[in-house]
Amino acid sequence: SPLRCLLAYSKPAVVPYTEEWLPAGHSTMKMSGVGPLTAALRMQNVVQSSSRWAQGQQYRPWTLRSLKLQPLSPVPSDIEISRAQTPKPVDQLAQEIGLLQEETEAYGRTKAKVRLSLLDRLREQPDGKYVLVAGITPTPLGEGKSTVVIGLVQALSAHLKLNSFACLRQPSQGPTFGVKGGAAGGGYAQVIPMEEFNLHLTGDIHAITAANNLVAAAIDARMLHEATQKDKALYSRLVPSVNGVRRFSPIQIARLRRLGISEIDPSALMPQEVSSFVRLDLDPAKVTWQRVVDTNDRFLRKITVGQASTEKGHVRETQFDIAVASEIMAILALADGLGDMKTRLGRMVVGSSRSGQPVTAEDLGVSGALAVLMKDAIKPTLMQTLEGSPVFVHAGPFANIAHGNSSVLADKLALKLVGEDGFVVTEAGFGADIGMEKFFNIKCRASGLRPNVVVLVATVRALKMHGGGPNVSAGSPLPREYIDENLSLVVKGCSSNLRKQIQIAHLFGVPVVVALNVFKTDTQAEIDLVCQMAKESGASDAVPCHHWARGGRGSVELAQAVKQAGSQPSHFQFLYSQETPIVEKIRMIAQKVYGADDIELSPEAQAKIDYYNQQGYGKLPICMAKTHLSLSHLPEKKGTPTGFTLPIRDIRASIGAGFIYPLVGTMSTMPGLPTRPCFYDIDLDPVTEEITGLF
Amino acid sequence: SPLRCLLAYSKPAVVPYTEEWLPAGHSTMKMSGVGPLTAALRMQNVVQSSSRWAQGQQYRPWTLRSLKLQPLSPVPSDIEISRAQTPKPVDQLAQEIGLLQEETEAYGRTKAKVRLSLLDRLREQPDGKYVLVAGITPTPLGEGKSTVVIGLVQALSAHLKLNSFACLRQPSQGPTFGVKGGAAGGGYAQVIPMEEFNLHLTGDIHAITAANNLVAAAIDARMLHEATQKDKALYSRLVPSVNGVRRFSPIQIARLRRLGISEIDPSALMPQEVSSFVRLDLDPAKVTWQRVVDTNDRFLRKITVGQASTEKGHVRETQFDIAVASEIMAILALADGLGDMKTRLGRMVVGSSRSGQPVTAEDLGVSGALAVLMKDAIKPTLMQTLEGSPVFVHAGPFANIAHGNSSVLADKLALKLVGEDGFVVTEAGFGADIGMEKFFNIKCRASGLRPNVVVLVATVRALKMHGGGPNVSAGSPLPREYIDENLSLVVKGCSSNLRKQIQIAHLFGVPVVVALNVFKTDTQAEIDLVCQMAKESGASDAVPCHHWARGGRGSVELAQAVKQAGSQPSHFQFLYSQETPIVEKIRMIAQKVYGADDIELSPEAQAKIDYYNQQGYGKLPICMAKTHLSLSHLPEKKGTPTGFTLPIRDIRASIGAGFIYPLVGTMSTMPGLPTRPCFYDIDLDPVTEEITGLF
């Protein structure tokens, strides 16, 4: 354009005299009193700035700078490795992966929340490949799924130079200070800084705790107020006269609608309508909502509340769960936006009335406050791996009473950011029979996303245990079987649990790559055997990986296998339709996934199913609360148990999250502290501010 | 300098060939093989970069940009006012007030934590003037201390153009969703964004909750483990063999020292030493540590824990307090650095052993973990007022069982930042008899800071109530006395409560400015009368202020009065020496501050005093837990009660925070929810993300 040379040295993005530019009522063609060159320059500027805006809205190719890693041998402690690496400033990382400045909110130097407006901006951008990391049935020997997720992403991004993103769950603080330690990966496959990952992060779990406990306080206070006040007093307090005007709040109008009352003038309600409006009439014995803390506090497993005289004898037995067991955590993980989260929070059922009607958070008038408390928690947190690849940390629901997967929103944001040729690697809790099955049937159903590849993590040690190796116990030396070569145990483990878990993934039509997480005691013959048998069992590929000791470089082979599998067509299908009756859904999971002969429902479970059907919950997906230590309901049964009937002890529902969870055995929702918890070794140097003892 | 012209166009801050510059072992004078001009250039660069560094370390004058305020009439709701103002990006604010980039950690766009390294950098910088805002005895009619703090700082900074900083307490979330609403000020004197201020802020209270409850879980788990294991089993678990080596952790070595055991080889302890080491022998009836939640949950006021079968019958009655009542909050507010905080956390007494010895957090092995959980909470959070003046929000301990003041560290950082001619305005909870007395005797004693001015806040309405006006009750119309002019009630209020509170401030040798927070029903005659009588009672000045309706402009007269009072010499003195015996300290506060004839100790209180003296706690300052609604212990006694004896029901101690707190009556440490809590009106628009209903 002939104007370009004129503009070459005129830097301003818009012409300097903006005050007379496009005044109200003037179209761009009316430029009275302005010479033709000025007008042309202005026009040029408009064109340029529009195109800059449009460019700003487009997908931005990555310019990811990897962090150099020089692994030491022997491998130092996790916190030493984490501390030895300097993370990139998080705003730099955000820029490298194409985020706009206004799309991030830094929390310190190394963490940032990412705004959901990104989904609007990149609406037209095709998603990347979606990879799920699942595991064989867990054993006390550990499998290292998180390290595989991180190692794989380090390999894909830093070594194969493919855009890739890890999506991880935020760990509960309970186990960090209790037994398990942190969850930021390990060795040379970690999220850094690992202490930020393992501590408060950006406060999401604290927000869940606050929201959960506000509901609990509202329930008990409401029961007390209803028990001690007549309808009229309740009504005049619930709908008070403010400056002479009585008005229902929007939350109260929603309750009136559910009660079938269309009147919105408070003075016009009939006494019977007033009574149904003011009385939730919660049955104290049927309150299902529990309080939570993010601390391993076993003494809160069963408690009696309301014993102060101010509560007038309204004592009640209840319990605290660990915060991540809150239904609000499951909702955070499944919501696909602020509106959806708010709707789910409002419809959470907290108990039932004496007449058997469900009572919701919205009935309590608390749903707006819950959405306000959760408004920042809904934004995923961006961090990075030891090699500078991006990681989203977001949500971490329990993997038994909930679905155990990181958030739908983190996956969606990441799939847009990596672009069509990129990879998003996300993780499912527990073994593939639990975490992966729920990933497919619950999470993918909620999100509409379809997986391309399953990475199934195994270790030689765990396979040996599934093959019949002896039990191990904490504190005792590891039996020889797990240290010396033992091909026959490996064969048995591969032909039982590994083969079965591969078959489960194939039920859903998704190709499987087996990742053998190598320990230093594994022999080459054992490694080769696992890989060979995995492929014979139908895996697209099976490769050893060494990210723990060597970082991304140690998992390049896995990355290549995943890339290859991702280029194959995936024929994803759900295991069941949501129209299938509740009992049939449970039976299909028990038989096809767990290998049970059949299921057996307790009378309580049968009664609940009838109740849920009557309430219209019959179409919800199923979230099995089963032990993770066996494909069956019996934790000691390793390998591939057969010939068992799965007992369904009871059934519960998370209506806000949107699933029904049958209880197969007793699930602990509150871990305890051992005699010597992790916290004995955790310390802070007040001068250097260095933390020790986290792992 | 002749070199300057040579350097004019050579931009790099250091010479480009740094790899050969100042190699190890070479002094700056040995520049072998380098020409004289190069050497001179390098020297110039060193000088420049050293001086840049030194300049970077110096105090930086402020370049504060005020935000324009155009107050509307009638005054809109707090959230509407907050939302109508666009805050400056917090990094810009930080730069304007002289913070270095590396001294701040942004939390989103409008909040940043400020690192304590600032105190080192500005060590030599003289402090600004230190202004405390206190109030007359509170009434249900409200006084508005927070709005005075904010309005005064808006006036000082945006209108008098003096560097000034507001230091506020972080509010508990409990009341925000319960009865009281938020605490970000009100009208045109607010901290913005008010929803950030009132919600999670930067997570400090959540960190306190996590730390507090980790101690609680550790206590009950430890009692269970000690009750169910013999010495040998406990010892082998507490000091396990890891890879064949047994070693005490540093926290355990600290416990051994307290027990007088110098041995550090675990295998060399005598059986009796092992027993004293492994057994804290906590008496379940003498555990003083409580769990906390930041929710108004009245049903947790008295509970029974440990009722699950896994806890083997070790049930115990206990309670939850609101999170801000945790001793850890009091510690956060009084600590003057990370090391001091860690020491205080370690020495917190959680109960006593069966033999009557205090058991500390360090004995539980949890003190390092507590410091780790609190490492970010110790950094004050920077926000801004509606007019763009800086605000620190940090800590918010209870004002009865603790000292009710914002943090020492926020005040210290702010006093350095405002510089010698600047002002730091901080707030004390409740009336001057409580908040101000504790500010002087506890907070100033801990910090070493000395106040220059006390601003005493009063309202015509509250003075009328102190003068004998009728009681008011929520929901009923306000009696005429408070709406119409009533000079005789004003006279009585001024000559009783206002005069007494001025006298209390003078006990400490600090000049007083009375700030009359004007309501629209106040008449000019009433306003003039209060100001006149305040000055007659010894106030340096007394002025009406209108910040609620008009922002900083409405409090310029107050700002000028404070500036004037701050230029007078202050002769600060403590009310008592810490060497004074406990009983005498209590008596001095009761007689000189409250106006009691004497004190009366219950036998429990006397026994506790003997115990505390025996334990060496006798030199701690006193933190009275008295009703805030009267100068006496009887809430209904307004004005200046006389002729009463102050009963001391019991005495407790916060050894970590460092004070003893006598209980005068029963203090509720857990608020409840009313029939219609605030949360009914709180909502979030999922599209605009706008919050409604916070106030």
From TrEMBL, chains A, B:
<comment type="pathway">
    <text>One-carbon metabolism; tetrahydrofolate interconversion.</text>
</comment>
<dbReference type="GO" id="GO:0004329">
    <property type="term" value="F:formate-tetrahydrofolate ligase activity"/>
</dbReference>
<keyword id="KW-0436">Ligase</keyword>
<dbReference type="InterPro" id="IPR020628">
    <property type="entry name" value="Formate_THF_ligase_CS"/>
</dbReference>
<dbReference type="InterPro" id="IPR000559">
    <property type="entry name" value="Formate_THF_ligase"/>
</dbReference>
<dbReference type="InterPro" id="IPR027417">
    <property type="entry name" value="P-loop_NTPase"/>
</dbReference>
<dbReference type="GO" id="GO:0035999">
    <property type="term" value="P:tetrahydrofolate interconversion"/>
</dbReference>
<keyword id="KW-0554">One-carbon metabolism</keyword>
<dbReference type="Pfam" id="PF01268">
    <property type="entry name" value="FTHFS"/>
</dbReference>
<dbReference type="GO" id="GO:0005737">
    <property type="term" value="C:cytoplasm"/>
</dbReference>
<protein>
    <recommendedName>
        <fullName>formate--tetrahydrofolate ligase</fullName>
        <ecNumber>6.3.4.3</ecNumber>
    </recommendedName>
</protein>
<comment type="similarity">
    <text>In the N-terminal section; belongs to the tetrahydrofolate dehydrogenase/cyclohydrolase family.</text>
</comment>
<keyword id="KW-0067">ATP-binding</keyword>
<dbReference type="GO" id="GO:0005524">
    <property type="term" value="F:ATP binding"/>
</dbReference>
<comment type="subunit">
    <text>Homodimer.</text>
</comment>
<comment type="similarity">
    <text>In the C-terminal section; belongs to the formate--tetrahydrofolate ligase family.</text>
</comment>
<keyword id="KW-0547">Nucleotide-binding</keyword>
<dbReference type="GO" id="GO:0046394">
    <property type="term" value="P:carboxylic acid biosynthetic process"/>
</dbReference>
